[in-house]
Amino acid sequence: MTLSKAQLDHLERRLIDERRRIERELDRSADEHSGEDRQERAGDLTKMPLHPADLGTDTIDEELAASNDTRMSRELTEIDAALERLRSAPDRFGICEDTGQDIPFARLDVIPWARTCSQADR
User: Fold this and answer.
1) 8 Å CB contact between 14 and 109
2) What is the pLDDT of residues 77-88, one digit of tens each?
């Protein structure tokens, strides 16, 4: 089953929307962390945490934010690659790279940059 023109148009819009959403999130994250040190971000009056757990919480928050930024950057790369595939070979878009079978439209609608049929995309 080849994707219809309407389905391809829908997936292209989904990819563009997801790309914009991720760019906004990355910009917001960069704005939150630019020019501020840990003390300013936490709203602390002193550089010395009042409790050792506060320092641990701040560290975890920073690591989580960095991890999320990395994940979003990877997704952005996957989205750009999917847009390139869709625009350069629309008749081949939505075909599993592992099996050569069609990727179900329902899966593509949720993850329009999916390259495989399985849940464990690369």
Assistant:
1) yes
2) 999 999 999 999
Q: How many structural domains are present in the chain?
A: 1
Cβ proximity of 115 and 96 under 8 Å: yes
Q: How far apart are CA 15 and CA 10, in angstroms?
A: 9
pLDDT, one tens digit per residue, over 15-38 is 999 999 999 999 988 877 665 555
Please give the angle made by the CA atoms of 34, 39 and 45, to the nearest 5 degrees. Answer: 135
CATH assignment at residue 60: 1.20.120.910
Question: 48 lies in a domain?
Answer: no
pTM of the complete model beyond 0.90: no
Is residue 115 assigned to a domain? no
Distance CA 84, CA 78 (A): 10
Residue type at position 17: D
